[in-house]
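We modelled the chain as a single entity of 140 amino acids. Its sequence is:
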Amino acid sequence: MKKTLKKILLYGVSTFLLLMIVLAIHIYYVYRPAPDASTKVMARIDIKQKITRNDANRITSWMSHQKGIDHVMVNPQTSIVVFTFFPVKTTGDQITRDFKANFPFKAERFIPGGKQLMNSCPVASTSYAYKAYKLILQII
């Protein structure tokens, strides 16, 4: 009886640990997706000077014709360019370099800092899957 109980307990604990490892690996890979042809990324360029509506139209037209860019929005009131692109075709840094080379504006790619990233998506930071992912990253 004692041997049977030990075997059952050993198999139960082993199965539980195996399933936890499988779950950890699954969560790790789900939160680290590899970009494919359908993946889109959003980026922003801040222009450090005032632009006109004509400038905004020229920027929109030029960016819309660049390789890998999907959609462009330019706000002349805030001098901000927001665009989506396919990361398998180009990068945000490359688009920003090309933008600076083709326009006489002082511009920088906006990259949010750590505190801004923490405040960006309240669902992700409080979800159990995200917490499990962070725990797994600390263990690994």
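As a brief sanity check on the tokenised model: The mean pLDDT is 87. The beta strands are 41-47, 69-75, 80-85, 107-110.
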